[in-house]
Structure formats: C-alpha cells, structure tokens
C-alpha cells in the first residue's frame, strides 16, 4: 500500500466514511434530513465523486466541496461508510487531485438499454442512501 | 404522497415513496415512455422497467407503491 499526495493510503478502507457533496436541495428530504438516492447516482462518466471524510474536519470538507460545487450552492454532504458502498456492489477508488478525492465506481452499465441501466442504478443508489446520513453545512 | 427530486445523470424527475427504513420505492420519469423503477422492502429489493402508455399507470408500479406504503 502506498501513500497519496494527501498522505492517505491509496486503498479506501471499508471503515472510512465518504462524503458526497450535496449541491441540490432535492437530494435531502425536507424535515427529516433523509438522504434520497439521486444524491449517489453517477455522472455520465459512470462515477460518483466523493471525498474521504474520515480524516477531514467539516470545514476542510466544505473547502474542498466548494470547488466541486463550482458556482452552485453547497448545502452539505451525504456521508456513508465505504463498506456500505462495497456491499451494494460498487467500489471506492482514490482519485487525487483534489486531495482526499475518490470515485464510486463499478456502476451497472447496459449501453443497449438505458432505462434498465437506470433501474439497476436506482436500486444500488437506494441501498446506499438508506445507510447514509446528512451533514448540513452550517 | 411522493417526494420529488431531479436525477443528476439525465435530468429525469424522481417520484419517491418512503415509508421508513428500507421501505422505499421510486420511479423515474424522463423522455422515454419506459419508466425505470426500483424498490426496497426490508431484505427484498427489486428493479425493472415499466411501459407507460401515457394514460394508465403500469400495474407493477401501483403494486410496488402499495407494497412499501402498506
């Protein structure tokens, strides 16, 4: 195992928390703070961008997240343990820069049936979201 | 009543029924008349695609909503 520029190990451990930056208010249920599954759906490149939260303070996470959010609003983060991600059939792969960045990979791909691909991804994202919690930006 | 949100990958509208921990069902409405859906009910999980004719809500979707909110 080698170290990344941030000093973190290159393998994301099952016990590490990863944080998905919440840039849409609709990703969080009003009133309950429950994370909804769209927060974890991948981008068109088939990856979901997250930050390895375990060794970051909240303020450090917001600094990194602000760049990820670009000009959008940063509402907070959806946090989940990496082991949950792996049990759902995905993997977490360190991807620096930026520091502490990782991607959730191995989303189902069905190029000839985009609707079925979407359905499979919804099921995976829902399983992850059910175990995630909301860290609001204060 | 479902909760609404926009899915970031393709801009589809998500309608989600959440009745408690791991009791959740959602269907995505986008440009296609084929509607992707997925649900969790305890240890059970399922997903699929339902054809929508523009008038009648597909039976599998109605049954799934009933299953998680019952």
The total beta strand count of chain A reads 6
Oligomerization: heterodimer
Low-confidence segments of chain A: none
Span between N and C termini of chain B?
13 Å
End-to-end Cα distance of chain A, whole Å, is: 36 Å
Task: Characterize the biggest β-sheet of chain A.
Answer: 6 strands, antiparallel
Q: Which strand order does the major sheet of chain A show?
A: 4-5-2-1-3-6
Summarize the structure.
The complex is a heterodimer of chains A (138) and B (70). Chain A has 138 residues and is an alpha+beta fold.
Describe how the helices and strands are arranged:
The complex is a heterodimer of chains A (138) and B (70).
Chain A: E1 17-22, E2 48-52, H1 58-69, E3 76-81, H2 82-87, E4 91-94, E5 101-105, H3 114-131, E6 133-136
Antiparallel strand pairs in A: 1-2, 1-3, 2-5, 3-6, 4-5
Chain B: E1 3-6, E2 13-20, E3 23-29, E4 34-41, E5 44-51, H1 59-69
Notes on the structure:
The complex is a heterodimer of chains A (138) and B (70). Chain A has helices at 58-69, 82-87, 114-131, and strands at 17-22, 48-52, 76-81, 91-94, 101-105, 133-136. Chain A has 3 helices and 6 strands, in the order E-E-H-E-H-E-E-H-E. In chain A, strands 4-5-2-1-3-6 form a 6-stranded antiparallel beta sheet, with helices on both faces. Chain A has 138 residues and is an alpha+beta fold. The model of chain A has no long low-confidence stretch (mean pLDDT 92). The model of chain B has no long low-confidence stretch (mean pLDDT 93). Classes of the chains: A alpha+beta (138), B alpha+beta (70). The A-B interface holds A 24, 26-27, 29, 34, 36-38, 41-44, 113-116, 118-123, 126-127, 130 and B 3-10, 12, 14, 16, 18, 21-22, 24, 26, 28, 32, 34-40, 45-49.
Write out key terms for the chains shown.
heterodimer, A: 138 residues, 6-stranded antiparallel beta sheet, 6 strands, 26% helix, globular, B: 70 residues, alpha+beta, 5 strands, 16% helix
């Amino acid at each position: 195992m080698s170290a990344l520029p941030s000093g973190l190990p290159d393998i994301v451990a099952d016990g590490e928390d990863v944080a998905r930056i919440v840039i849409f208010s609709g990703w969080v249920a009003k009133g309950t703070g429950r994370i909804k599954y769209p927060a974890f759906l991948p981008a068109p490149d088939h990856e979901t961008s997250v930050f390895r939260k375990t060794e970051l303070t909240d303020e450090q996470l917001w600094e990194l997240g602000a760049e990820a959010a670009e000009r959008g609003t940063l509402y907070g983060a959806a946090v989940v343990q990496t082991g949950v991600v792996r049990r759902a059939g995905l993997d977490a792969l360190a991807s620096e820069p930026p520091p502490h960045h990782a991607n959730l990979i191995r989303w189902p791909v069905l190029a000839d049936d985009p609707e079925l691909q979407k359905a499979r991804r919804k099921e995976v994202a829902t399983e992850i979201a059910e175990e995630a919690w909301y860290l609001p930006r204060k | 009543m479902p909760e609404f949100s926009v899915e970031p990958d393709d801009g589809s509208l998500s309608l989600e029924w959440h009745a408690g921990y791991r009791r959740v069902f959602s269907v995505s409405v986008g440009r296609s008349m084929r509607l992707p859906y997925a649900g969790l009910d305890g240890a059970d999980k399922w997903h699929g695609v339902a054809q929508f004719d523009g008038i009648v809500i597909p039976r599998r979707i109605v049954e799934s909503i009933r299953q998680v909110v019952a």
